[in-house]
């Protein structure tokens, strides 16, 4: 049995939500009307691959994660927001973040992976906060992600954890929640599995 804990924050700007969460180092997925951006949260701010602060004023949805916790922030028309912080470690959720959410008791957890589009450039972009990789594909162009280039022949993927719960009335098992963990190298291609089901789910970033 695995328990997922959470806290909900009242309507606050994204910058304040990040401050309340207390991240030290984390990866941020930022959606705005203009673009989708992956940023690195370090030293109290989100930065791009150039080292400049990532623009947060136009972001309408953000997911920030460090392997132990995930922050979800979403704004709606009228400037109302929803903000939650999730973790399997209750002590990792600051009391000042907000009110506790009902605990989620999972019978089982499963690994989930989303394959990132694009071929990684072999040469990293080095910054004071760490290495970045450029992913390139003709369909979406280039995307900079805060992770070192993977070994030759591999791509990058987004790792997550699924929480399987049992519906109390009928006893059906279902994935009740998912938490993002990290960016990591994908497994090298397996020629014998080429004709079988695709083990990765492609993520359109």
TrEMBL record:
InterPro entries named in the record: CRISPR-assoc_Csx19 (IPR023815)
Region Disordered, annotated ranges: 182-205
Domain of life: Bacteria
NCBIfam families in the cross-refs: CRISPR-associated protein Csx19 (TIGR03984)
Name under which the protein is recorded: TIGR03984 family CRISPR-associated protein
Source organism: Streptomyces tardus
């Amino acid at each position: 049995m695995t328990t997922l804990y959470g806290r909900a924050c009242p309507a606050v700007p994204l910058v304040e939500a990040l401050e309340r969460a207390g991240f030290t180092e984390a990866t941020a997925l930022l959606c705005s009307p203009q673009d989708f951006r992956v940023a690195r949260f370090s030293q109290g701010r989100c930065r791009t691959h150039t080292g400049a602060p990532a623009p947060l004023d136009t972001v309408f949805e953000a997911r920030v994660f460090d392997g132990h916790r995930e922050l979800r922030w979403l704004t709606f028309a009228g400037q109302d927001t929803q903000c939650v912080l999730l973790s399997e470690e209750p002590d990792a959720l600051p009391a000042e973040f907000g009110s506790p959410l009902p605990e989620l008791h999972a019978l089982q957890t499963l690994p989930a992976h989303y394959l990132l589009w694009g071929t990684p450039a072999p040469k990293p972009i080095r910054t004071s906060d760490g290495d970045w990789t450029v992913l390139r594909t003709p369909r979406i162009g280039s995307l900079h992600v805060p992770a070192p280039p993977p070994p030759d022949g591999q791509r990058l993927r987004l790792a997550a954890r699924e929480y399987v719960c049992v519906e109390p009335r009928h006893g059906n098992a279902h994935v009740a929640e998912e938490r993002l963990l990290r960016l990591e190298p994908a497994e090298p291609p397996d020629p014998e599995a080429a004709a079988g089901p695709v083990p990765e789910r492609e993520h359109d970033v």
